[in-house]
Amino acid sequence: MTESTLFTLAFILYIFSAFFYLAFLFSKKMGSARTGSILAWAGLAVHAAALIARTIESGHAPFTNMYESLSFLSWAAVLAFVIIDFKFKIPKIGPYLMLIVVGLVALASSPLMPKTATPLVPALQSYWLWLHVSVTLLGEAFFAVAFIASIRYLAAGDPAKKERMDSVSYRCVAVGFPLFTLGGLVFGMVWAYKAWGTYWSWDPKEVWSLITWFVFALYLHTRIVMGWKGKRSAIIALVGFLAALFTYFGVNYLLSGLHSYA
Amino acid sequence: MRMKSFIKFFSSVKLAIVLLIVLTLASVLGTLIPQGRTVEEYAARYGQIAGFFSRIQLTHLYHSIWFLALLGFFALNIVVCTLTRLAPKFRRAFRPHVQADAKGLQALKLNGRLKKNAALSEAKSDLVGLLKAAHYRVRETAEPPRTSLLARKKIWGIFGSDFVHLGLLVIIAGGIVSGLAGFRTELAFNEGDVVQVPRAGFELRLDKFTTEFYPDGNVKDWKSAMSVLEQKRPVLSKMVEVNHPLSYKSFNFYQTSYGWNWDNPAVELWAKKTGDAAFEKKMKLRLGERAPLGDKEETIVAVARFVPDFVLGEGNEPQTRSLQPNNPAALVEGFRGSEKIFSAWIFANYPDFSKIHGTKDTDLAFELKSFEARQYSVIEAARDPGTALIWAGCVLVMAGLGLAFYWPPWEIKAVLEEAQGKTELVIGGLATKSRDAFAAEFEKIIASSRRSK
User: Fold this and answer.
1) Looking at beta carbons, which residues of chain A come within 8 Å of B71?
2) Which of A209, A257, B308, B382 has the fewest CB atoms in 10 Å of its CB?
3) Last residue in a domain, options A118, A144, A175
């Protein structure tokens, strides 16, 4: 099967997964959540096959333009969710996350995003492309799950549920923050040094990754040292995810700089 | 400021939080105002307040005095914060307080109390065995009739944040070294050029420069075959490409740019006659070179000028907008004998636009088919002694994050007291991270301890 067939199949599986999770949200029947989870896993597997097919077809890493990187980000978000769900059993995150994933995949499929695989410009011909982008997007995917857990925290009324969402949000940041630091900042600096001859140029995308890092550093310090939990913590996690989203998306469209690839 | 209040001010986490917020907002501001542009650009964009922006250095914000001062405060804050917290942490890690009291342990969230029909030494070795099997390091202190045990694992986890902070300081130090001692300059090479590298005792030679293309015409790679020369002798050769710099001594050389040398291009012309469909002549001319067209009028053709990026300047004077071949154009002239009979600008991208206007009517038409110019390669030479610190700092930060999040220190304390041949054990557990996993392990140890005899 070709990449586009697999991608469409994954899209359909994600839509059904979102549907069953939504049914669970309203009916509270665990069976629906289980079906949603199985469909999410299936979508993840098919989507992985699509990414592999894309890599083989194009001969390079599957995140060199906006379509590819959106596709990879949505895959990473599902991966982050199924891992967190496997560990903490939080089906309530499912409907929101799967809706976001369906949105991202729809955006990737839209005519706005050119799908043709273009050959790599010289600056991107490096194995650091794999390391830098995949680890960064995986970190951002965990921030996305933290974002939803924080929203659920703010929306929930029951203190036990709130406590749980607060802890899930923290666990996601505990995974996402080291990944983002490693992929976005450390690998980014190493690659910039190899490609541009300087590890830091205050390019808008670099600055926005630093801003994202500052916000999550703030999250950790207020939480661990000052004991801020709950509402304030949730709000900082929200801001952090929005900063990550702007780093990923907004910088490309609103600010110009060296990262003019995707 | 007295020393004490100075330390108190800079050891505050509140200051760290304020600084993080201020640094974040300043960084955002720097991405909203384009950095390092010309005075004219700022004037056009911001009008009256442009002068104010440049006075408070918003136009080069990340190198402004106030931003660097903020970073300096931040570094000082990290130093003082970390140092003031380090001494108690060292005591806890290397000179721990082993002695415990039963009441204190029972006040802990995780605690257990059991009685054993055994002598203290037996009960103790039993518990120590269990703890060691679970990879705890056990210390003990005895003050009869009581013995206290302290069992811990992954105690290095308490230093996670310190490693991160130390790493950040090393990175900041690396940035300072880069800023003060770093040196970079661009060197342009024609093929065969030998250039003395500034501030270095060696020379660099470009042996060959090639541009590779994909089938669709996009650039695949720029390759500069470079040689390092010591006392005019080549000592090292390497193909320098984007992402593959050449390293020699403390210098790195990067492929950064390229361009064309437009002084002496070769131009390929196709001549046709509107009145004679059979006539076609292909010719390749250097600038200024004259060649016969081979028609019966014995016309001589020459290329008088070539511009890579044609534009009409003031007074309709043809000139080039850039050194990129965006709109290549050649001025073709025709002669019969010594008389110039026509001259015409012809355009590679607009073959239909090329019109012949001359002193005599001619039915000649020219096309600018191709052109060749020597390409030169631009290599950036950089020496940055700060990078070693940067990488060391990155390793420390990542190690610290690993310790802080995934190396949770767990602590189990016990007090054993013997009375009439029986021993009472009071056990308490303490963890600040991964509490659920610790609770499970703690309960397991208590349960195994209960089971044994």
Assistant:
1) none
2) A257
3) A118
Same domain? For A137 and A114 the reply is no
In this structure, are A93 and A165 located in the same domain?
A: no
**Residue A254 and residue A137 share a domain:** yes
Domain region containing A56 = 1-118
Contact: A221, B401; criterion CB under 8 Å: no
Pairwise CA distance, residues B149 & B142, whole Å: 9
Give B200-238 pLDDT, tens digit per residue: 989 999 999 998 888 887 888 999 999 999 999 999 999
Question: Which residues, other chains included, contact A8 with Cβ-Cβ below 8 Å and sequence gap of 6+?
Answer: A109
The minimal CB distance from B394 to the residues A177, A189, A251 is found for A189
User: Do A159 and A110 belong together in one domain?
Assistant: no
| Structural domains counted in chain A | 2
| CATH number assigned to the domain comprising residue A94 | 1.20.120
ipTM above threshold 0.95:
no
Residues of A in contact with B254 (CB under 8 A): 195-197
End of a domain among A85, A118, A151?
A118
- Residue A132 and residue A261 in one domain: yes
In terms of domains, do A148 and A247 share one? yes
Query: pTM for the whole thing?
Result: 0.87
- How high is the pLDDT of residue B61? 93
Which of A123, A186, A196 shows the shortest C-beta gap to B398?
A: A186
Please judge whether B218 and A202 are an interchain contact, meaning their C-beta atoms are less than 8 angstroms apart: no
